[in-house]
Amino acid sequence: MGAVEIKPGIYWVGAIDWAVRDFHGYITPNGTSYNNYLILDEQVTLVDTVKHDFCEYTIDNIRSLVDPAKIENVVINHIENDHMSSIDRIMELAPKATIYITARGKKGLDRFFDTSRWNFKIVKTGDMLGMGTKTITFLETPMLHWPDSMMSYVKEDKLLISQDAFGQHLASSARFDDEYCDQYSVTGLEHAVRDYYANILMPFGALVKSKIAEIQKLGIEIDMIAPDHGVIWKKNPAKIIQMYLDMANDKADLRVVIVYDTMWHSTEHMTIPLMEGIKAAGVDVDVIKLRATPMSRAIKRVWESRAMLIGTPTLNNIMFPSVAEFLTHLRGLRPKNRLVGAFGSFGWGGGAVKEAYAEFKRMGLEAVEPGVEVLYRPSLDDDDRCFAFGKQFAEKAIEYHKKFNGEQPGKCVA
Ligand code: FEO
168 C-alpha vs ligand 1 centroid, how far in Å? Predict the structure, then answer.
């Protein structure tokens, strides 16, 4: 896709990755884009590069606007490979350019490339780059998404180039939010935002809040947010900021999501009376079988829901591998303010449900104990126990949810 002007003299020059379905383990059914931006001012400035496989696309886009040798400044907002791994090629074409980067970014970049021939300017929050008629102000955003991360704000255009934050893994011909057509997409735009947040930014909610507060305190006016993935927020940038605040404030839907796996269908069978018990308490319920579902989708659904029940058979006295993997991954994402419980079947000896509760404790989540365990195969009595536990769990979820969403069991977003 060719260069697209997003503000007078500022162009999207990135690349669309229609085919990627596994982004370092995160499933991307819609593909993604690697967005970078070229500012044509008295000094030509490139903000970010793209994943190295797509390097020639961005170079073609730059060439369609200006000779790359004329680039005087290259801003590296973030050193993850999807955004900076074309820097060596860019510096071949513009060897005299100065790279603007945070101190941590430079330290990281030195591990990927021989940077000894390149010119650097280390920047921190509040530093500026005057390009002629336009000025970039840098804003460090450590851990959003890596320690080196920063954003670039062009005050004359009220444009925030936000790097990973506010992005979405969406490959699309639409460059702007108001061009994107949900109707024909595998995943709608807001779902793509939540998917991205849940799988990448969930651990950093407190930082998201403090960084948005810092931006507001600085009195920065924003009428466009240009992230490094997906569409640019032109029509309503306030909406994406509010979505982020809601997610950072742990808003969720009043729903129980049952996440399970099964060996010989006993644990699977338990999901049915559990689901009926939850429904009987008047709470929405969703059921996800792990081996049939990409992990990132399960993570998103857990993140969107106030409560989670984990179902695991016991295998060799511990949790079923797919469930253990899921909980380990979830622990790394540091979920907060979710109510949890566990259930499962066992044959020779139990252990899995106990392990699931130990994992909940490590995560610091509030758990409803004890869960339900069934020997070999659920009987009708076991079905009754599952129904009762599901109902009890959902009733507790209603009370728990009020702490965050008030009396109204309303939805967080969409
Ligand atoms: Fe899109 Fe943290 O890289």
Answer: 11
Q: Is 338 exposed, middle or buried (0-12, 13-18, 19+ CB in 10 A)?
A: buried
Closest residue to atom 1 of ligand 1, CA basis: 164
Active-site annotation holder among 17, 34, 78, 148? 78
Asked about 164 being catalytic, the answer comes back as yes
Q: Which atom of ligand 1 is nearest to the CA of 228?
A: 1
Give the Å distances, CA to CA, from 62 to 68, 73, 87, 89, 255.
6, 14, 14, 13, 48
| 412 band by pLDDT with thresholds 50, 70 and 90 | very low
CA 196 to centroid of ligand 1, rounded, Å:
11
- Index of the ligand 1 atom closest to the CA of residue 229: 1
Kindly state if the Cβ of 17 falls inside 6 Å of ligand 1: no
- Which ligand 1 atom is the nearest neighbour of the CA of 146? 2
Which of 76, 244, 98 is CA-nearest to residue 148? 76
pLDDT of 25: 82
In this predicted model, what pLDDT tens digit does every residue of 201-241 receive, in sequence order? Answer: 999 999 999 999 988 888 889 999 999 999 999 998 999 99
Is 229 noted as a catalytic residue in this protein?
yes
How many CA atoms, within 13 angstroms, populate the side-chain half-sphere of residue 387?
A: 9
What residues contact 414, with CB distance under 8 A and at least 6 apart? 190, 191
Beta carbon of 228 within 6 Å of any ligand 1 atom: yes
Task: Establish whether 145 is a catalytic residue.
Answer: yes
Write out pLDDT tens, residues 96-141. 999 999 999 999 999 999 999 999 999 999 999 999 999 999 999 9
Residue 339 near residue 397 (C-beta atoms within 8 A): yes
Q: How many CB atoms lie within 10 A of CB 156?
A: 15
Q: Is 80 a catalytic residue?
A: yes
For the Cβ of 83 lying below 6 angstroms from any atom of ligand 1, the answer is: yes
Among 46, 1, 8, smallest CA distance to 224 is for: 8
Please state whether beta strands 26-27 and 32-34 pair in parallel, antiparallel, or not at all (unpaired). unpaired
Query: What is the pLDDT at residue 410?
Result: 46
The rounded distance, in Å, linking the Cα atoms of 76 and 397 is 44
Mean of the per-residue pLDDT values of the chain: 94
What is the pLDDT averaged over residues 168-175?
Answer: 93
Which pTM does this prediction carry?
0.90
